Amino acid sequence: MDLKTPLYDAHLEAGGKMVSFAGYTLPVQYKDSGVIKEHLAVRNQVGLFDVSHMGEVVYEGKDALANLHYLLTNDFSNLEVGRVRYTLMCNENGGVIDDLLVYKCSDEKYLLVVNAANRAKDVAWMKEHLFGEVAFSDQSDQFVQIALQGAFAKEMIEKRTKEEEIPKKYYSFTENADVGGVTCLLSRTGYTGEFGYELYCKPEDGIKLWNLLLETGQEYDIIPCGLGARDTLRLEAGMPLYGHEMTEEITPLETDLNFAVKMKKEDFIGKKALIDKGEPKITRIGLQLTDRGIVREGADVYFNDKKIGQTTSGTMCPFISKACAMALVEKNSVEIGSPIEVEVRGKKIKAEVVTLPFVKK
Amino acid sequence: MTKAMELKFSKSHEWVLFDGDKVKIGLSDYAQDQLGDIVFIDLPDEGDDVTKGESFADIESVKAVSEAYSPITATVTAVNEELLDSPELINSAPLESWLIEVEGVDEIEDLLSAEEYKKFCEEAEEA
């Protein structure tokens, strides 16, 4: 039986088409809009997402930082309180267990946001590797998470929040902001490639915050958006998704996430394997179809009739109106502008290697 | 004697319009609603044969690909080329957006009347 988020009734009322995702029942789209309209709302004005399925875990104590340093690939020693950092969590072979955000609440308290589909696996892995003086807790059920994404998010939050409580920089947050009477962690982050915020509040305040944001956004034509648009938006923005561009078999270096791996760090799980493997033999590219059609994940990619790799995600990107995909291919086999082909149901379709992100704004 | 225009539905959610010897096939309103925004379709060519119970077109929505199944064994005499450039018409006007026209009908599966089909969809919703 799938879990319901505290916003379940609001989704039904709004005509959400509910689907099962990562153990939750969530709207894939809403009846009056659909994926394309929802996608365009975020690119052109503003949209609201229920992302309460995401997992939240907390590390607290004297050795919290040391734990994260060993467990995760990025460096947190220079992370300031009130800032967020993207990181990977690798296994001993250098494969990616999950990608996550680390929020520094204080010198001894960190909040980690993990993928819903990986939560159980992550929690088990994290518990297994705890050391020193640290308290670990899975607080996923203690948060509603709402993503407010799109240019008008700024004005909306300004209307409901004191100036000094609004995080200004990208990847910064205010732990106890008062947004229209609801206490929440207000974070300048998102997964759409647009300006926006992610808000974390108590489950019992979820509906109030959701409705408050919808009301505040009315004058900007805000609409609720589902998982469908969340996926097309992140793809159009060239952002990787766990299970597609990242898996336990792919290292971060092979999927072009080097920026989140600090090889100079003394030690972390997976470092040795990453060194032993040497220069990655594959890399992640963006491609755009030049022929008509759509390419999804798992399609073979060819250059000069030689298979060079496979797509990992693909769809029609609504804002740029182009069929796009990301792919993992042999390193140095192609460059930007290379004419390639992708095989869709036995037919080879023409495409071109393009820079990521697909959307340029 | 053939009957006047008659609209029927398949259990795989295609509509079938019999007009003399010619038969047009499209996607039902229920099907387009389930699929969501349709962004690409791939149709057979004129002269191709379609076979009862087999796929004759790929329908790509933003989220996923699905197929249209022919309720009839026959030969394609026309394809709706307008849809190749504007597949979203299937969403906005599913009953006007025929996909293919066929002739020389050989086999036909048991089709539902509009009323039976409505009931069939309601039951599918509840399941």
Secondary structure elements and their pairing?
The complex is a heterodimer of chains A (361) and B (127).
Chain A: E1 3-4, H1 8-13, E2 16-21, E3 24-30, H2 35-44, E4 47-50, E5 55-60, H3 64-71, E6 84-90, E7 96-106, E8 109-114, H4 119-128, E9 135-138, E10 144-149, H5 153-160, E11 173-179, E12 182-187, E13 196-201, H6 206-217, E14 223-225, H7 227-236, H8 271-277, E15 282-289, E16 300-303, E17 306-317, E18 322-330, E19 339-344, E20 347-354
Parallel strand pairs in A: 1-3, 4-14
Antiparallel strand pairs in A: 2-3, 4-10, 5-8, 5-9, 6-7, 7-8, 10-13, 11-12, 12-13, 15-18, 15-20, 16-17, 16-19, 17-18, 19-20
Helix pairs in contact in A: 2-7
Chain B: E1 6-9, E2 14-19, E3 22-27, H1 29-35, E4 38-42, E5 49-50, E6 55-61, E7 65-69, E8 74-79, H2 82-85, H3 89-92, E9 98-103, H4 114-126
Antiparallel strand pairs in B: 1-2, 2-3, 3-9, 4-6, 5-8, 6-7, 8-9
Overview of the structural elements:
The complex is a heterodimer of chains A (361) and B (127). Chain A has 361 residues and is an alpha+beta fold. Chain A has helices at 8-13, 35-44, 64-71, 119-128, 153-160, 206-217, 227-236, 271-277; strands at 3-4, 16-21, 24-30, 47-50, 55-60, 84-90, 96-106, 109-114, 135-138, 144-149, 173-179, 182-187, 196-201, 223-225, 282-289, 300-303, 306-317, 322-330, 339-344, 347-354. A six-stranded mixed beta sheet of chain A has the order 11-12-13-10-4-14, with helices on both faces. The longest helix of chain A is centred in the middle third of the chain and has 12 residues, at 206-217. Chain A is globular, with a radius of gyration of 21 Å. The model of chain A has no long low-confidence stretch (mean pLDDT 97). Chain B is an alpha+beta fold and 127 residues long. Chain B has a single domain (14-126), classed as Beta Barrel (OB fold (Dihydrolipoamide Acetyltransferase, E2P)), CATH 2.40.50.100. Chain B has four helices and nine strands; from the N terminus they run βββαβββββααβα. The longest helix of chain B has 13 residues, at 114-126. Chain B is globular and about 35 Å long. Chain B starts with 5 loop residues before the first strand and ends with a helix. The relative contact order of chain B is 0.24. At the A-B interface, helix 2 and helix 7 of A face strand 4 and strand 6 of B. Chain A: One of its GO terms (biological process) is glycine decarboxylation via glycine cleavage system. Chain A: InterPro entries: GcvT, GcvT/YgfZ/DmdA, GcvT/YgfZ_C, GcvT_bac, GcvT_C, GCVT_N, TrmE/GcvT-like. Chain A: It comes from Enterococcus ureilyticus.
